[in-house]
Amino acid sequence: MNTIDGGKSLSGEERTQLLRAATAVAENAYAPYSNFRVGAAVLGELATYTGVNVENASYSLGICAERSAIAMAVAAGEKKIRGIAIACVDASKDSAARLPCGACRQWIYELAPSAEILVGGDDAPFRIEELLPTPFKFGKK
Ligand code: THU
């Protein structure tokens, strides 16, 4: 099946693999302040990239898992991100704490607009339009 922008939907196997990669990498999160470990995995056209949240004693300098994974994909030259999986391994089941924060939604809107967004514990993938219906737009967007 194809997506709205003509890309190919993720297969069940790709979804499983992406969620597995996000869950595995969450073990490497650096979250000594919140004790809330997050892993993310991004599927591009060339490869899969992972990221974790990395906190800092100067709290506002921390970065989320989703943005660290997306930055890796951008650095590798990916032009299209097909999927993003997010694993908040310390969140309780069904909690809204498993969903991406506002800043990460804005990054997904700009850098991965057609990605399937897979949230650990949820069956159906999200689209950015559902998570961020009124994004900030400026310049080229
Ligand atoms: N965090 C993420 O990594 N992704 C999100 O979308 C929300 C929050 C991280 C930031 C911080 O290190 C910890 O989770 C608690 O907020």
Count of helix runs: 4
Bound molecules: tetrahydrodeoxyuridine
Order of helices and strands: HEEHEHEH
Low-confidence stretches: none
> Largest sheet, order of strands side by side?
2-1-3-4
Q: First CA to last CA: what distance?
A: 28 Å
What share of the residues does DSSP label as strand, in percent? 5-15%
Report the count of strand segments.
Answer: 4
Dominant shape: globular
Alpha-beta classification: alpha+beta
Q: What is the helical fraction, as a range of percent?
A: 25-40%
Q: How does the major sheet shape up?
A: 4 strands, mixed
Radius of gyration: 14 Å
Average residue-wise pLDDT: 94
Please write out the topology.
Layout lengths: L11 H14 L12 E6 L4 E5 L12 H11 L7 E6 L13 H10 L4 E4 L8 H4 L10
Parallel strand pairs: 3-4
Antiparallel strand pairs: 1-2, 1-3
Helix pairs in contact: 2-3
The structure holds tetrahydrodeoxyuridine.
